[in-house]
Task: structure prediction
Amino acid sequence: MKRIILLFGVFILNSLTACFAQTDYSHYLDKAMQQLEAGDCDAAQKYYNVYKELSGKTVVSVEVLIGDCGKEKTYNVGDYIDVGDEKYQVVYIRDGGKHGLAVLNKGWQKLYYYFDLYVTRKGIPTLDEMKLIYSNRDVVRLYDIYWTCTPEQNSRTLFFTHDFSTGKITTAHQDSVNGVILLIHRF
Result:
């Protein structure tokens, strides 16, 4: 968003400069930016090409934005992803960083008190996901005991704690053990 605001300032400057020229083609540049904001990469490229052809000018910052338009964002383990108002840390990636898991550490608590909010609404990692997170625990510095749950086909949910300092997985009752709650974001 900051890049778009900066580029909008560049366009305003270009528009003012064009006011003093005999022919003003900046409206094509403005349309290109509008299309970029709307996510229509092809239309943005077309308007920008018309601008370049008619004005004989190029705008490097717009070319970079058009070049990046439509490219899928990739992440590395340890990066942060904005999810709503929260920052989740990437803890596992696949497909070259296009997909994976990110977590938000909610701290030590008994799961029983937060069951509805964390398990049924926002979600904590399944046991399989927790094993993937465990494989990168040193990179993201996760060394506590974490809650995990896995829904079964018979509508039961099995609860576990996974001790990242020892690797030990223990079956747990949701109101008997403290552990750290990690909220999960799958991307």
Q: What stands out?
A: The longest helix spans residues 2-19. The chain is about 40% helix and 25% strand. The radius of gyration is 24 Å.
